[in-house]
Structures are given as structure tokens and as C-alpha cells.
Amino acid sequence: MSIEIKDIKKSFHTTKALDGVSCSFERGHIIGLLGRNGAGKSTLIKCIGNRLYQNEGSVLLDGNEVRKSPKDFERITIVGDENMLPSSTKLKNVFKMMDDMGVGSEEKALVLSKKFKLDVNKKWEKLSTGYRTIFKDILGLASNREYVFFDEPILGLDANHRELFYEELLASFSPDRCFVVATHLIEEISPLVDKVIIIDQGKLLREGDKDTLLCNVKMVSGEKDKVEKAIEGKKILSRSTILGQAKVMVEGEVEEEGVKVENVDLQRYFVEMTKDGE
Amino acid sequence: MKSKDRVVIKDYFLSVLCSGAIAALIVMVFIPILLYTIGRQIGEGIPVFSVFFSGTLESIAVVEVITHIVLGALVLQYMRLYMFMGLTRDRAFLRMMLVEGLTLILTFLCLAVIGTISGLIAGTLEFSSMLLTCLYITLACTLMFGVGCVSSALSTTCRPPLSVAVVVLFLIFMSWLYEKASNMVSTNFVLDDGLHVIFSPTSYNTEAIMAFVFGVIMTAIAYVIYKLPISQMKSTSIN
Q1: I need a surface site. Which of A154, A201, A227, A244 has the fewest CB within 10 A?
Q2: How many CA atoms lie within 13 A of B48 on its CB side?
């Protein structure tokens, strides 16, 4: 029960947005789809959602090509970063349509609108940036589909609304569903996700269970010679050296002999993994 | 009709009804009153108010035809909405065609009502002729919808200004093709009993049928464009 991405390639003229990405989105997980600006997160989501056609590769849901299988496509909700509504449409009408088409619950959408203080009688074109994001988040949260993709769901939201979104995201989640959140605010989203997929420059960098990924990674810092000795034989993920002091992120256990060994949080891990020139 | 489409149908129907109503208000109320008042002011004897009502149907039809270009151009936006609701591109497009089909029927009915009212006031109502005129106008609306539809589809293949150039070139080509096809359809059929049936490009029915056929062809081209690998259903970012 998963969406399988198989060797997807997508180019825009000479730019390779996705270069052979393969990963999977399984039910029962809240997955963080992480990457720097222009890494290819949104392109990947658009390929899954049929907004873009990939040049090569396939998107399979339980073995069926999503693009050619309307029934499987109906199991996915994509809340993208684009304007997907006719500008003159009233928000309450979209909630109604969502209910009519069996995508989600109008009732739940209206309850969420009250919580977020969203005026459902407004038209899409009249909303501010933050409220456009809120509206789309509500569509995703009120969806009853198995796979829900949120692309930048906290763009332009204030701290209170972000907190509320995280609460509602957890409340809407169930083991038979899969939520995918693509965002830059890794520190905030980190406690919510249990699996991460990191994309960099159109390629898959890491995919796996968040805790498993992080528990095996250590940040070793101290005098360069001592650090080099301590990390001997370890797989080095990133390295920086300033004035004889070294800071190295490695995979595997490291003994604290004259060096400082620290656990790494998701944000630090991400930053080190996607540093320029690494 | 399934209630699933009521939001989109409502938008499309309201567009046709509102544009028709506004045009009717201008052509059938404001202009006659204005001309009648001016006529009386300058002392010209305008004998009957009803003379202003001849030709109103054709005037209102222009507005309806323009409305259908806009509706064609809006197909892309509503397809995005349908796609959010879980429909694949193909299904979203076909759903929009269904909505447009219903809108064309409404356009015909709307024109028939306006034609009846203006014909009654003008005293020149001839039902069969008026309904035929409404049918021709509706078929012309199909062509205009096709123009709008194919334009929005082409806009998904490249960005402005290239997309604008592509649309303009395509429309010029289609106009040229339309003219050629119109000249080719002048045909003289002789039936068994010696009856001659002449299809001529100068006759309204042939032009209306040509318009309908070209409308359908353009819509079909739009469908093919949406299936091209380079077609992107992206839109302007929310910011």
C-alpha cells in the first residue's frame, strides 16, 4: 500500500529538475519531503498530481500507473503551491464541491475555517497570501483521501496558525493514511514527521525512518588531528575546518576521546547534507 | 446532471445569463429609451417604439459569442479545480466539455427567449426563422468556445510571449483553413426526383455547420495539446 516513484526524470529546457528520483510514500506515515529551494520537491509533487508529465519514469500506486488509472488517482489529494482555483469562486462553493465529489467533508472544512478564522463567503482573489495558504491547508486537512500531499503548507502563516495547522494535521492523521509535507521549516515540522525524504539538485539524497536516520549520525568537533583520529574508518557525511578546528558529521558511533560528540537534529542533518559544494 | 458539477455549472450558466441579461438591458431598454427620448427632443416623429426591437437578437448574440470565448479560456482554470478534486487530466477535460455542452443548450434557450420577446414587441416574430437564427448563433458560440479552449491549452505548452505568438499563429492558420474549407463546401446535390440541393458558403446554414465543425476540431486539438508531454498544468504561484 504505497506510492512508488520509479526513476523519475523531468527537465525544463536545459535544467534537470528531477534526475532519476526513486522513493516511496507508504501509508501510516507522516513524511517530510525536504530539499532546498529548487531541489525538485514541488516538481515531484506536480508529477505525482498529473500537473506535469515526467520525461521518464513512473508513479505507481499499488502497482498501477497513477496517470492512467483514474480510480487510483482519486486516492490522492495534492495541495500544491499553485493557484488552482478560478479567481471568482467563493470558498464555500469549493467546500461544497469537495463534498459533492466525495473528496472530503464540507462540515469539517467549515469547522476548520472557523478555527482559522477564514471567511468562507470570500472569493479566492480577495484572500491575502496567508489566508490562501490556510484555505488550501483546510482543503488538505478536510480531505478523506489516503494520500495527501501538502506543498509548502505553512508559507506566509503566522506562528499561531502554524501551531494550529500542526495540531490539525496530527488530528486528521490515521494509520491507513499517508501525509506528505514539503517544507523549508524543518525545525518546526521535525517532531511531526516519522519518515524523511531529502532531495537535492533533483536527486534523492536520503530516504528513511527519521529516528533510524538520525540515531546513527554524530557530529564530531574539536582539534583537527583528534577529530581525524576519532572518525577513522567512519563514513563522512560533511566536513568543515576553521583555524585548526574541525567539525565532521559521520555515520556510526564515535568515542569521546578529546573530541566533542553530539547527536544531530533533523535540521542540522539537512543543512550539513545539502551544503553547497558537498 | 450529477450534483458533482453544480459549482462549475453555476459559474458557466451565470456567465451566459448575466452577459445575456446585461446585453438585453442595453439593447432592449436603454438604447430604445435613449433614441426615443432624443427623437422626441429634436422633434423627429418616431412613430412606434417597437422599431428599435428589430435586430436586437443579433446584437445580443454578439455578447453571447464573446462570452463563449472567455468560457473557453477558463477551461484550464476549472480543469485545475477538477484535478484537485481527484480527476485525471483527461477526465477533467471531458467534464468541462460536458459543462460547456449544457451551457450551449442554455445559450440557445436564452437566445430563444430574447428572440421571442423582441419579435413580439417588434411584431415580426416568425418562430421557425427565429429558432434557426438562435441555432446558428449557438453553433457560432461553439467555434468561439473552441478558440478560447485551444488558446488556453496552448498556453500550457510555453510561457508568454512565445505562448501568445503560438496562439496568434494558430488562430491565423485556423482562419485560413476555415476560409478554404468554406469555399470547398459549395456543393450541388441532385436527388433522385430531380430536386437540387445546393450547399453554398454564402448560405447561413453551411457557415453555421462549418463553425460547429471547426469548434469541435479546435476543442479536440485542445484535448490533444493537454496530452502532450510538454503541457504543464502549472499556474501562477499563490504569491
Answers
A1: A244
A2: 7
CA-closest candidate to residue B89, choices A66, A58, A98, A40: A66
- Which pLDDT score is estimated for A27? 93
- In the predicted structure, residue A217 carries a pLDDT above the cut 60: yes
Instruction: Tally helices (H) and strands (E) across chain A.
Output: 10, 14
pTM for this structure? 0.82
| Other CB atoms within 10 A of residue A1 CB | 11
Are B125 and B140 a contacting pair, CB within 8 Å?
A: no
The whole-angstrom distance between residue B16's C-alpha and the CA centroid of its chain comes to 10
Nearest to A12 by CA among B42, B229, B10, B222: B229
Amino acid in position B76: L
Reading the block at residue A187, the C-alpha cell is 525545525
Pairwise CB contact (< 8 Å): A73 & B236: no
Q: pLDDT, tens digit, for every residue of A241-259?
A: 888 888 888 888 888 778 8
Name the residue among B86, B91, B230 with its Cβ closest to that of A103.
B86
Q: Which residue of A has its CA nearest to B89?
A: A50
Collect all residues of chain A within an 8 Å Cβ-Cβ radius of residue B232. Answer: 51-52
Chain B positions in Cβ-Cβ contact with residue A75 (cut-off 8 Å): 86
Q: Is A169 exposed, middle or buried (0-12, 13-18, 19+ CB in 10 A)?
A: buried
Which three three-digit cell numbers place residue A153? 503548507
Q: What is the pLDDT of residue A181?
A: 95
Average pLDDT along chain B = 82
What's the pLDDT tens digit per position in B95-124?
A: 999 999 999 999 999 999 988 988 888 777
**CA angle centred on B38, ends B35 and B44, rounded to 5°:** 100
A61 bridge partner residues: A3, A64
Q: Decide if pLDDT at A59 tops 90.
A: yes
Closest chain A residue to the Cα of B229, Cα to Cα: A53
Give the one of A74, A82, A101 whose C-beta lies nearest to B237's C-beta. Answer: A82
Asked if residue A106 has pLDDT above 80, the reply is yes
* In the predicted structure, residue B158 carries a pLDDT above the cut 70: yes
B23, B60 contact by CB (below 8 A)? yes
Mutate to test the interface with B, among A8, A51, A120, A150 (most CBs of B within 10 A): A51
Cell triple for A60: 505507481
Residue A111 main-chain phi, psi, to 5 deg: -65, -45
Write the CA distances from A232 to A221, A272, B122, integer angstroms: 14, 19, 99
* Span B209-234, pLDDT tens digits: 888 888 999 999 999 999 888 888 76
Cβ neighbour number for residue B138 with a 10 Å cutoff: 25
